[in-house]
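Q: What would this chain look like folded?
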Amino acid sequence: MNSLKLKGNWNEVAGKLKQQYANLTDDDLLFKEGKEEELLGRLQAKVGKTKEQLRKIISKI
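A: My prediction, written as structure tokens:
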């Protein structure tokens, strides 16, 4: 899976991620089309999960 499959609105997904991982900030969750790897890198550094694990978490939201 090379790109993020987002269900619904990214703001909703970002809110749920912030609830699950309290140390995430709005800056960590900035999403721009074509910048998925950058987003995953920021999340990976903050929550200590692999990019593939993060893709699975995001796809379930």
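The two ends are 16 Å apart (CA to CA).
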